[in-house]
Design brief:
It contains nine helices and 15 strands. With about 350 residues, the protein is an alpha+beta fold. The chain folds into four domains: about 70 residues, Arc Repressor Mutant, subunit A (Orthogonal Bundle); about 60 residues, Beta Barrel (OB fold (Dihydrolipoamide Acetyltransferase, E2P)), CATH 2.40.50.690; about 80 residues, OB fold (Dihydrolipoamide Acetyltransferase, E2P), CATH 2.40.50; about 90 residues, no CATH class.
Length: about 350
């Protein structure tokens, strides 16, 4: 399937141009043909400006027919110059321990062998370095920076030793063992299932990861353990920070006369929510009335939840960081709402 056209930032556009020209060093390109080849909507003039910049840097040369071509002689003078490009994407681990970096501006996912992951783990956001002029069948790179960790907590079995404890994750495919100082295990005992907050990541691939115990899980409740594992493995926290809860509880639900005057009033129209009684948020509604001409009007209403949300508050920042709601599938709606993250 043809990739959707997109408009790239200058640096990303430059990377794509370098990749195209360096992989086809015998071909001359016009700005328009480059635009079509890399499937972007950036204007040809913007592409031409980058090409002229690359010409000045000696990486590209201009041909008599006003096309642009990769300067192979520059490669020989300065091996590797201009070939390395930086991309940012998401780690998609494989069973072998290697990974593909997805979500970049590369036309295809970039393969990173396990030795070049620099400690990055599944779903981390990373910056990678790629050799744009490589003749490999698939692009290959290495992680040069971990921008953001996806995993902040794990659930696992606590094993205590003389000087420290180790939490062995329930899911071992992608998730690490976490070391915990004995002073930070709280009331947890050897063999119990616990949740752990990660506080310190190893600097290299095999360095130890440290954290502290945040809770004890009933190992007889298999459903709860499974749901917690899913949440934590996907970077969601089942709890909200105290300041967020306090802020939410302090919101006054009253609607003032001034606010009513700003809106269309449907209180005299038959209007009902479509959420069950057990729901925690009543944000969808339908209305019904017969008009004077005999037609029936059905209204669809969506709650203005931002009315209660002030920008840059703790509640606003928490909502932005979560960006979605997750309902656990093994329980009723009221419990699912309670567990929404």
């Amino acid at each position: 399937m043809k990739r959707r056209t997109r408009q790239l930032k200058k640096e990303d556009l430059k990377n794509q141009i370098i990749k195209l020209l360096s992989k086809s060093p015998r071909t001359g390109f016009t700005p328009l043909s480059i635009s079509r080849k890399i499937n972007v909507v950036n204007p040809p003039l913007a592409i031409k400006e980058i090409l002229e910049e690359l010409v000045r840097q000696g990486q590209v040369k201009t041909l008599p027919d006003n096309t642009y071509k990769w300067n192979k002689s520059a490669d020989k003078k300065t091996p590797g110059a201009g070939k390395k490009i930086l991309l940012t994407g998401v780690v998609d681990m494989t069973r072998s321990g290697a990974a593909y970096i997805t979500g970049t501006d590369f036309p295809e996912d970039v393969y990173v062998p396990s030795k070049n992951l620099a400690g990055a783990m599944h779903k981390d956001i990373v910056r990678i370095e790629v050799d744009a002029s490589s003749r490999r069948r698939r692009p290959e790179g290495k992680v040069v920076e971990i921008v953001r960790r996806s995993l902040t907590k794990i659930i696992g079995t606590l094993r205590t030793f003389e000087r420290y404890a180790i939490v062995y994750p329930e899911s071992t495919r992608f998730y690490p063992e976490v070391y915990v100082k004995n002073s930070l295990i709280g009331d947890a005992k050897d063999g119990q299932i616990v949740t752990v907050e990660i506080t310190e990541w190893g600097k290299r691939q095999n360095k130890s990861i440290w954290g502290y115990v945040t809770g004890i899980v009933d190992k007889t409740d298999e459903h709860e353990m499974a749901m917690l594992t899913i949440l934590l493995a996907n970077g969601f926290s089942p709890e909200f920070p105290e300041e967020v809860i306090a802020e939410a509880e302090s919101i006054k639900g009253e609607i003032t006369e001034a606010e009513i005057a700003r809106r269309r009033d449907f209180r005299t129209v038959t209007t009902f929510t479509i959420d069950p009684l057990t729901a925690r948020d009543f944000d969808d509604a339908l209305s019904y009335r017969v008009l004077e001409n005999g037609n029936i009007e059905v209204g669809v209403h969506i709650a203005d939840v931002t009315h209660f949300m002030q920008e840059n508050t703790a509640l606003d920042k928490e909502a932005f960081s979560r960006s979605t709601s997750v309902y656990l599938v093994d329980r009723g709606m009221s419990d699912a709402s309670r567990k929404t993250v």
